[in-house]
Amino acid sequence: MAMPFIERIALAGMSAPIDRNPHITPGALGASWNFHAVSGPRSIRPVRFSVSQPLAETAPLPPNFLDKVELSPGIIMPVLENDGLEVLAFRLDAEQNVIRKICVCLNGEERRRAEELRLERDRRRFVATRGQLRRVLASKLGISPSEVELEYGRLGKPHLSRRMPSRDLHFSVSRSGDVAVVALSTRQEVGVDIEAVLPVPEADEIAALCFSACEYGSYIALGARDRLEGFLRRWTLLEAVSKALGCGLGQPLSWDERDWAVRRFVPKPGHIGTVVVRN
Fold first, then answer.
1. Which carries the bigger pLDDT value, residue 94 or residue 38?
2. Is 130 helix (H, G, I), strand (E, B) or coil?
3. CA-based torsion, 210, 185, 92, 270: positive or negative
4. What are the Cα distances from residue 81, in Å, to 36, 130, 132?
């Protein structure tokens, strides 16, 4: 079961109360817990995503959008392709022999990080995610997965090492439960986020804390049947933009929606995904 949103925020170190009061400026918090260089709790605070105009709903999905994807353990499948953008999805709960094969390409630091995870399921999913990322990048670079070298920005954003054959390949990773996705762009910075469509009891409180005033207003105007999907659409967008900008949790940032191409996709039935690429 996916960790509740409120626990994920608490684990990141948020100390501010989640209530709508004049001391908390409505903002938007893009969160990324994937592939940070430094592990452990991180201190964050509510921050504002400054936009020049209210966020518009995404344009109609491209013709190659796939609304049904049957994922098999250990198999990487495309779920979206569009003008230099590619999103690949894979399941993480593969058989142990598949995980062992994937683990071979990890480096010592990645193995150490896996061993530090308390639950066996989390260790397996970390190995699968990192190993499949290496496989995807290696196939694009024409090298073996074990030769892929990653570097990290000041706030943990991963990117290809300067020693890699192609530095114009941008990528982003997201995981929800037993599903992970890798977004690749040959044009500009890319960010991706996926979430399982499961009840989020704290959605209204999180929206009050994390959404801009305009976004919060449009969210609470939704009917009860549309509220969960509306929350997840906005949340995945904010996370995807945060990852693309590499700002990390709790870092003030300003962005203009006109600078980004936004695409929605379904990594697996019962999930919502958003990927953004800088125009």
1. 94
2. helix
3. positive
4. 26, 22, 18
For 172, which DSSP code?
E
The answer to whether the CB of 49 falls within 8 A of the CB of 27 is yes
pLDDT at 27 (0 to 100): 27
Q: Are strands 150-152 and 179-185 parallel, antiparallel or unpaired?
A: unpaired
Cα maximum dimension of the chain: 54
Record the tokens describing residue 14, joined without a space. 């948020």
Tell how far CA 99 is from the center of its chain.
22
Q: What is the pLDDT of residue 11?
A: 42
Asked if the model's pLDDT at residue 143 lies above 50, the reply is yes
Which has the closest alpha carbon to 186: 277, 266, 258, 275?
A: 277
Could you tell me which residue, 234 or 155, shows the higher pLDDT?
A: 234
Task: Please tell me whether the overall predicted TM-score, pTM, comes out greater than 0.85 for this model.
Answer: no
Candidates 123, 118, 119, 77; CA nearest to 100 is 123
Residue found under tokens 């040959």: 186
Question: Which has more pLDDT, 157 or 57?
Answer: 157
- Which amino acid is located at 174 in the chain? S
Task: Give the whole-angstrom CA distance, residue 113 versus residue 124.
Answer: 11
At 119, the pLDDT band (50, 70, 90 cuts) reads very high
Is residue 73 a contact partner of residue 131, using CB atoms and an 8 Å limit?
Answer: no
| Spatial separation of the C-alpha atoms in residues 126 and 105, rounded to whole Å | 13
Identity of the amino acid at 42: R
When mean pLDDT is compared across 5-14, 65-74, 98-107, 249-258, the lowest value belongs to: 5-14
**Which residues are 260's β-sheet partners?**
278
DSSP H or E stretch at residue 193: strand 190-196
**Residue with the two structure tokens 């170190």:** 13
Tokens of residue 183, six digits: 């977004």
**pLDDT of 250:** 57
| Contact (CB, 8 A) for 262 and 62 | no
